[in-house]
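Service request form, structural biology core

Requester: graduate student, group of Dr. S.
Request type: structure prediction, single chain
Budget code: on file
Notes: please return the result as structure tokens.

Sequence provided:
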Amino acid sequence: MSAEPDGPEDRLRRFATIWSRAVFPVTTTSSTRPEFEKQLQPLARRLSEALRARTFDANEGRAVGAALVDAHCTDPEALSHSLDCVDAYLVLYCGDDSPREDLRARSARLQHAMAAGYAQALRERTLAEQEAISAAALKAQGVVAQALHSSEARFRAVFEGAAIGIGIADLEGNMLQVNGALVRMFGGAEHLVRGRKVMEWTHPEDAPQVWKLYEELVRGEREHYHVEKAFYRPDGTVLWTNLTVSLLRDADGDPEYQLVLMEDTTERRLLNLRLRYEATHDALTGLPNRTLFFERLEKALGAGAGQRFGLCYLDLDGFKTINDSLGHAAGDRLLVEVADRLQTCATAPGEMVARLGGDEFVALTTGPDTESEVDDLAARIMHALIAPITVDGRELTVRGSIGVVEGPAGERSAAEVLRSADITMYRAKSAGGNRFELADPEADARAITRHGLTTALPTALDRGEFFIEYQPLVHLGDGGVRGAEALVRWLHPQHGVLGPDRFIPLAEHTGLIVPLGRWVLEQSVRQAREWRDRHTDAGPLRINVNLSPCQLTHPGLVQDTVEILERTGVDPDALCLEVTESALIGADDDLLKPLRRLAEMGVDIALDDFGTGYSNLANLRRLPVSVLKLDRSFTQSMQQFPADPVDLKIVEGIVSLAHSLNLAVTVEGVETGAQAEQLRILGCDTAQGWYYARPGPPDRLHDLALVDATG
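Core staff response, request fulfilled:
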């Protein structure tokens, strides 16, 4: 029988055990290790809950760091061991079903917060010790005459037992006394510390005000100062400290000594640098990540007058195929190689390369002459990707599309610049990829408008923003109105009335064309029923409705059409569904099956834009169509007299072929009387165009049909 799996509490206790074993050897607590482990258990629980919390709270990590100081974990190695333990085991023992990458990122942020909380608590404890030491020193001087021996003993106890480094120097800067902690900070040799002059302890990274503050103190113009300062140890390594220097006065109030208090912050500083690096660099490639890139970009955009910037936004073409076919490990190795190549492209001052995520990289150049430099940078990147990359013994060809943005600093925000680069990159992809394009404000505006329309589409139908206009279909023989084509429009709140060319491609791309098409079909069929009921003398008016390729492949097409016809009481022969010729090129039986079922019910199928799809005319026999809608490009020359004889022959041949196959012929785009007459002579059956009427409200078609019925 297998053992039951560990529960969350068991895993939490195991994490606390590992933590206590790692930290206990470097603590100054009087507790036993099991007792110390019990102290860590509530801290482990807080970290576990913060890791899995819905919203990240850095205060939890800071509180845990502060609690370590309260538990006497004041040795710098205690923090280092704690962070190493959290880094290695927190996600393993306390994680949930969230993606490991998200948990690792949150764990890193918790480590950063722990370090900040630990540093704050230790600083507060240090300041308290400093105050106690200063008070003890002053008290020792003030009561020398009364209790010299006892005060000296107390001062010595504080002086030698303090966890921070303490030194006493005269006003000439000679170091007179140092405690053990200070000696250990400088390598353990007291003779190398005692007797040295304070002015010898300079460091290249000293802030300009450090020595100005020192001079003011020894002159008696200030009582103390606190700075962060670096020192060189005898072995050449660097010691970073929080340094507090106080002035000690004699009984008459005159300056006499300097009291130096040092807290070793080297480990904490290195840890913060490591955490900062991890937070600002990509773990896979080592490149700067999105966070650091935005910092650099915002700095470049905030530069003074005369400064410019150039940005190259790179996305690899076809990277998903590599991941899907060779696996993510191969994809990662490819990204590492690409990152190495990109780094060689941006080595000049003011240039950097970063990975934004996935297969997206960005290169930035700054300076007064980026107009030419950014083009050179984009060209270098494209050239760097030419050579194939070998992954697992396979040579992979790498292609990339780049969007380039360049301009003066101070005019756009970082988000606006990156959005423009992203739009331009996708324009390069649309142009075939493996190229770079320059940003175009007008193209950006169009892309932003398209995005806005795409975002607004899902709710536009619910808000009733769509409406339908109808363009009459006229019989060329007697001039009578036989029906109308339904043309959907969008009354957009900001952009006004939009034609189908502005939003139908967006609806097809997002899949919203299916519910929109169903709505158009139902509204159009209802309108056909209304026309029939309003004027029975004019004969039945047919309604033509366009079908998109997405609707053709939707499994509910036939069922939706049947339900709409039955619900409205309209006969199938009053409906004609128009399908573009390009949608049926090479169509197999599965695609044609729903159209055949509709045709068998009595619904007419029209082949729209006929003549533009380069289809084989012999295919007409296998398509379930009853109407050919001849594209307007064949009849434009007939607007003038005489018409092009070649066009006349082509149209005459198409009409003859269609009639031989028992297909009716409708012509679009009729704009003149001469054109209409010529098409009538050629034998076309029906026509539509501005010569008869522009698309309009349904009542206008009713009036036209009524006039036709009354002669």
